[in-house]
Amino acid sequence: MPGILLGDVFPNFEAETTIGKIKFHDFLGDSWGVLFSHPRDYTPVCTTELGQAAKLSDEFKERDVKMIALSVDSVEDHRGWTKDIMAYNQEDPGCPFPFPIIADDKRELAVKLGMLDPDERDKDGVPLTARCVFVIGPDKKMKLSILYPATTGRNFNELLRVIDSLQLTAKQRVATPVDWKPGDRVMVLPNVPEAEASALFPAGVYTKELPSGKKYLRYTPQP
């Protein structure tokens, strides 16, 4: 993704959205943020994705994560589309949509943030916006980026799992192993000396014996 790398300060762009004009850093405040893009309004995969994101919005809120979507259509189109999304979710008519959608009808943000999918094009031959996910920390730095092609829908439960890991490892000197989920044991970072590990993790540290004799697989209950 050209221009934005992990650890970079995320651009403080201004944009029109379904809740009015925003400045991105002001919108985030001191919260975490997740920005996810969509190829177009009134399209099938995007509708299922935003429907699932809306269903899980309370889960993101519990983690102090502000959600915001982006699609290359107008605010007016977004507002009409959200009615379809809520109907897809079998919500009552008039039920408010739980997070804003950025209008990027000129594709300026999609270009700036490296969101275009060169292999998928609309009926006019214009590249579609890919399905990007950016997670931004309270320090406004990018903590995670995932780039899906326009043809593949995302797993928002996996995104919640990743955010749980990011928030845990931001505070504790641990890493989360393969398929980790909250409550599972975690791994002590290799740069934590053995004597220090005992003090940091009073619940105990278990070291897996390996043929190499190297003591790098160290587990501890989730702090």
How would you describe this protein?
Belongs to the peroxiredoxin family. Prx6 subfamily. The chain is 29% helix and 26% strand. The chain has helices at 24-28, 44-55, 57-62, 75-88, 108-112, 156-171, 194-200; strands spanning 14-17, 20-23, 32-38, 65-71, 101-103, 116-121, 127-129, 131-136, 142-148, 174-175, 186-188, 206-207, 218-220. The chain has a 5-stranded mixed β-sheet. A 4-stranded antiparallel β-sheet has the order 10-11-13-12, with helices on one face. Strands 1-2 form a two-stranded antiparallel sheet. The longest helix has 16 residues, at 156-171. The two termini are 34 Å apart.
Quick one: biggest sheet? 5 strands, mixed
Question: Structural class of the secondary elements?
Answer: alpha+beta
What is the element string, with H for helices and E for strands? EEHEHHEHEHEEEEHEEHEE
Task: Please count the helical segments.
Answer: 7
Taking all Cα atoms into account, the compactness measure Rg is 20 Å
Number of strands: 13
Instruction: Report the helical percentage.
Output: 25-40%
Low-confidence parts lasting 5 or more residues at pLDDT below 50? none
Organism: Anguilla japonica (Japanese eel)
Domain Thioredoxin: 4-168
Family: Belongs to the peroxiredoxin family. Prx6 subfamily.
Active site: 46 (cysteine sulfenic acid (-soh) intermediate)
